[in-house]
Design goal:
512 residues; alpha/beta; seven-stranded mixed beta sheet; 22 strands; 39% helix
């Protein structure tokens, strides 16, 4: 097996993978060791070159069963530890991640096709996730309820046991940390199933957690396809809850599978977020914010502000400004230090983006910037697409209703507040949104009326592990991050303790 990394940092990444890949074949990370899969072969492709660089086999049910068994044993040991001891180990996890930050960033850059500068930021955020939840380990408290009886009644927050987490290809390392940290903070064991397209960084992350002192088997990475490996994990009796991050189509399948087993799930799905610009806004800041909302990560973000709603009186001006600025943004190889926009992650997604743009144009949208494949030296077969601005978009068009998950901005005109709210909410999604305005009252009104789980005022994409994150409508249900995300990984138990001396005789029973 060989692994080739272009650009600087090759040796660092190679050393990290050599440390991990003690086996001749890449596979799943189970109970502290690499276990080859038993299913079909999967080829990992570098998004920037379009070339395969590593083959491995789908885990399938056999490996999943071993992972579930290991997770149950390790979870019992983990939960038996004191909360303070668990917190101290989680803090060490953060330090371990920071020590390996550059290697992790470079691995993620090649595997997911994300610009190196973005990967470095995301690695730091993953370390922050473990540090944040380390502080919560000994602060998960219940409450005493003053029931109208002689009982002492109190609540406990207890772990589910083992949870299955299914994470996407657009931010594999970030979403792995986003979910693992609160899960183990609450005392759970984890079966992590990253996208079959991007399993490397998640696998390395779990190896680092074990090096920091987390018990082997507490977090297991099962690498393979969703319809085989993820399905086996959901069906396994050890799984007591499922967390899924991905498309609404797959989310509905996940929810149905969980319903069959009567287990709960958290779904973090797609978005078609409205970024709303009023005429009184600081247009210079709004234009910069609009670009960051869509073009960061080549638009492959669930909260992407892919619908730019602009008040009609300044519509032409904003389109001109955004288009002019966008034309200066050039995709490049992700491992270059100054690259801001990398490739689309995979060929299927690249074709989806291209098709939606073509359909939008056929329905009357006008290409104000971009709108086609991008030529990048050294990435001739990579999945690069120009940052694109579509003007004259009507909210009924497919490009305004379907999640594009690429570097494409659809600019839609509106007349007043009511029109803006109606247009923003005319979507089956409800993940995020934003408003740019100098009117503070309007800002609060828009925040209250736009149907979205996260809403920004005069900014976009501010996200932190301390704050809850999740969507409305087909953007899913349940929350990640913050105290609300932590509580998703606990079950509440009510405990009743009789304190009266004559408790039995109160109910008419004789005492001998």
């Amino acid at each position: 097996m060989s692994f080739v990394v272009e650009g600087n940092g090759q040796q660092q990444v190679q050393e990290l993978l050599t440390s991990l890949l003690a086996s001749a074949d890449f596979g799943s990370w189970i109970n502290g060791e690499l276990v080859p899969g038993t299913g079909d072969s999967i080829t990992l492709v570098n998004p920037a070159t379009g070339k395969g660089f590593l083959d491995y086999k789908d885990a399938t049910e056999t490996v999943v069963t071993a992972a579930a068994d290991a997770a149950q044993i390790a979870q019992a040991k983990w939960w038996a530890m004191s909360a303070s001891a668990r917190g101290q180990l989680m803090w060490k996890c953060g330090a371990q991640i920071r020590d390996a930050a550059e290697a992790l960033a470079r691995l993620e850059c090649v595997s997911a096709g994300k610009p190196l500068r973005d990967c470095r930021v995301e690695v730091a955020k993953v370390a922050e996730m473990f540090e944040y939840y380390a502080g919560w380990c000994d602060k998960i408290t219940g409450e005493v309820i003053p029931v109208p009886t002689s009982h002492l009644n109190y609540t406990r927050h207890e772990p589910y046991g083992v949870v299955t987490q299914i994470t996407p290809w657009n931010a594999p390392l970030f979403t792995a940390g986003w979910q693992i940290a609160p899960a183990i903070c609450a005392g759970n064991g984890v079966l992590l199933k990253p996208s079959e397209l991007t399993p490397l960084s998640s696998t390395v992350l779990v190896k680092l957690l074990e090096q920091a002192g987390i018990p082997s088997g507490l977090v297991n990475v099962i690498n393979g396809y969703g319809y085989t490996t993820a399905a086996a994990a959901i069906a396994n009796k050890a799984t007591k809850k499922v967390i899924f991050i991905g498309s609404p189509q797959t989310g509905s399948v996940i929810a149905a599978a969980c319903a069959q087993r009567l287990i709960p799930c958290v779904l973090e799905l797609g978005g078609k977020s409205a970024n709303i610009v009023f005429a009184d806004a600081n247009l210079e800041r709004a234009v910069v914010g609009a670009q960051a909302a869509v073009f960061a990560a080549a638009g492959q973000s669930c909260v992407s502000g892919s619908r730019l709603l602009v008040q009609r009186s300044v519509y032409d001006e904003v389109v001109e400004r955004v288009a002019s600025a966008t034309c200066k943004l050039k995709p490049d190889l992700p491992w270059h230090e100054d690259t801001m926009i990398g490739p689309i992650n995979n060929a299927k997604q690249y074709q989806h983006v291209s098709n939606l743009v073509s359909n939008g144009v056929s329905q009357g949208a006008v290409v104000a910037a971009g709108g086609k494949a991008s030529q990048v030296a050294g990435g001739e077969q990579g999945f690069f697409y120009q940052p694109t601005v579509l003007a004259n978009v009507d909210n009924t068009m497919g490009v305004a209703q379907e999640e594009i998950f690429g570097p494409v901005m659809s600019v839609i005109a509106f007349d007043d507040e009511n029109h803006a709210v109606a247009t923003a909410n005319d979507s089956r999604f409800g993940l995020a949104g934003a408003v740019w305005t100098a009117d503070l009252g309007r800002a609060h009104r828009m925040a209250a009326q736009v149907s979205a789980g996260t809403f920004w005022v005069n900014s976009y994409k501010a996200i932190n592990v301390m704050s809850p994150f999740g969507g409305f409508g087909e953007s899913g249900y349940g929350r990640s991050s913050g105290i609300e995300g932590l509580m998703e990984y606990t079950q509440t138990k009510s405990v009743w303790i009789e304190t009266a001396h004559n408790a039995a005789t109160q109910f008419g029973y004789a005492i001998e």
